[in-house]
Specification:
The chain is of the alpha+beta class. It has two domains: about 200 residues, 2-Layer Sandwich (Cytochrome Bc1 Complex, Chain A, domain 1); about 180 residues, Cytochrome Bc1 Complex, Chain A, domain 1, CATH 3.30.830.10. Helices cover about 50% and strands about 15% of the residues. It is built from 18 helices and eleven strands. Helix 3 packs antiparallel against helix 4, helix 6 packs parallel to helix 11 and helix 12 packs across helix 15. The termini are far apart.
Length: about 500
């Protein structure tokens, strides 16, 4: 049966969508620009910067607490510490998560004592007594069991959930550790109370059990993952001086030996008022919200703002090549050193990321995947923000295709960037996609809250968030060529690949 409704020509549908995009994108950008004048900020007496953005679309608020600390702040022996705190911040406080804190505190001290004794014996290496190790391990397990009887599991999460909260979570990366969730708008005081408590009176309960969980994460995410192992080797090879050379998860030996007292020292140094930024976005009135936030968040000790990492990565003097043997499918990664996110060239790098490897319309995807069938996937990513990071190209070779074939095609596309100006229409399309991606990331309260704190800490001001669209618009074909020539040179490259074991 033929429908009585007339179908639109597919071409007309495409043209209609394009026309709508042309009309909507400037409108969205204009609305986005209008948000800037609604932002209210205040630095509290203890140094916490509070950023509030009223957005009364629905009776909800999203809150972000941004700690200006990541794996870049770690040193040898305590790698993985920043990530540990992503876990520890949900373990509760002296008032939350415990049946009897006075008794629990004594039990936790006993756990520390037994672990330090066990660690001391382990540190003897081959001279350690097997019998004594067994005895100390049993004492340590017993101490943990005794401390565990005072724990109320997941009480923080239950309080948030009962109050209508959603999205309670955190993440750690090279430069930051971020805690976030959303609540009904009439629960702001509850959030401020909980946040002040967990960053003023934290209890690192179940610390050693949690580091065991993280060790398992490392086994599954890196050691059992060919691409994970490759990424770890890539960073280690690309950086010989800067602390970006260790991934966030940390080294296994450090995760086995880190102590709770060391973690407490870390907390006192980095989780102070002068190193925290808070954002609240949604159905919130700054006039009534700011006094509430100041009342509770000012309880967090001010501390001293930690200094920036002073170690600088020296210029690379030649291409670095590494191979990771694994029975898995071959994989290729090519990384170039690039400047930090606050650099004037960052907008150009963002455009180049989308142009070369941003999705199915990118140059690498079209050539390697669609046309020449060299790869199952090809793309680009920038890693590292606060300090000079990496521009990395990934390719997953197709069946019967090699990493060498993929590398050759990638290098030809890199040379094309250097020699041929990007056609005006292609550049216009790439910038439109980049603008759209950014606008979409701000579509909800949480996206805005995340970006406000991130721009404040990475770029130096949340106001830079509202300059991003203009900076992308200003990128020219000449900028793309200049950046490609300056940074995409062989001596600035680290090439990593997964290869089959030699025996095979």
């Amino acid at each position: 049966m033929v429908s009585s409704k007339r179908k639109l020509c597919p071409l007309l549908v495409v043209l209609a969508v394009v026309a709508l995009t042309i009309l909507v994108t400037p409108l969205m950008a204009a609305t986005f620009k209008d948000l800037e004048k609604n932002v209210v900020e205040k630095v509290l007496p203890n140094g916490i910067r509070v950023i509030i953005l009223p957005r009364p679309v629905a009776p909800v608020i999203s809150m972000v607490t941004y700690a200006d600390v990541g794996s870049v702040n770690e040193i040898t022996g305590i790698t993985g510490m920043a990530h540990i705190f992503e876990h520890m911040a949900f373990k509760g406080t002296e008032a939350i998560g415990t049946k009897d804190y006075a008794k629990e505190k004594e039990a936790l001290n006993k756990v520390d004592e037994t672990f330090l004794a066990l660690k001391a014996e382990r540190d003897k290496g081959r001279f350690a007594s097997t019998e004594k190790l067994k005895e100390l391990e049993e004492a340590f397990d017993k101490a943990q069991e005794e401390a565990g009887q005072y724990v109320i599991p997941n009480q923080v999460g239950e309080i948030v959930e009962r109050s209508g909260g959603v999205g309670l979570n955190a993440f750690t990366w090279l430069d930051q550790t971020v805690y976030h969730y959303s609540l009904p708008s009439n629960k702001l005081e509850l959030w401020a109370t909980l946040e002040a408590d967990r960053f003023t009176h934290p209890v690192l309960r179940e610390f050693y059990k949690e580091t065991a969980v993280i060790r398992e994460e490392r086994r599954m995410g890196l050691e059992s993952s060919p691409s994970g192992k490759l990424l770890e080797e890539l960073f280690a090879a690309a950086y010989k001086a800067h602390p970006y050379h260790v991934l966030v998860i940390g080294h296994m030996s450090d995760l086995e030996s880190i102590t709770r007292p060391q973690a407490i020292d870390w907390f006192n140094k980095y989780y102070c008022g002068n190193n925290l930024t808070v954002s609240v976005v949604g159905d919130v009135d700054p006039a009534t919200a700011m006094p509430i936030l100041e009342k509770y968040l000012s309880q967090i000790p001010a501390g001293t703002k930690p200094t920036r990492v002073e170690t600088t990565e020296p210029p690379q003097r030649g291409v670095k090549r590494i191979s990771v043997e694994d029975k898995a499918q071959p994989f290729l990664a090519i990384a170039y050193h690039r400047p930090e996110r606050s650099s004037p060239d960052h907008a150009t790098f963002e455009v180049v990321t989308t142009l070369l490897g941003g999705g199915r319309t990118s140059r690498l995807y079209k050539r390697l995947v669609k046309e020449e069938k060299l790869a199952l996937f090809a793309g680009c990513e920038m890693m590292g923000d606060k300090y000079p990071g990496l521009f990395t190209i990934f390719a997953l070779p197709n069946k019967d295709k090699t990493t060498a074939e993929n590398e050759k095609a990638i290098m030809e596309e890199i040379d094309r960037l250097k020699k041929e100006p990007v056609p005006a229409e292609e550049l216009k399309s790439v910038k439109a996609r980049k603008r759209s991606e950014f606008i979409n990331s701000l579509d909800d309260n949480m996206g805005l809250a995340m970006n406000l704190t991130e721009f404040q800490n990475i770029n130096g001001s949340w106001r830079d968030m509202f300059k991003k669209l203009d900076l992308i618009d200003k990128v020219t074909a000449e900028d793309v060529q200049r950046v490609a020539k300056e940074y995409f040179s062989p001596k600035n490259a680290t090439v990593a690949q997964i290869v089959a074991p030699e025996s095979e």
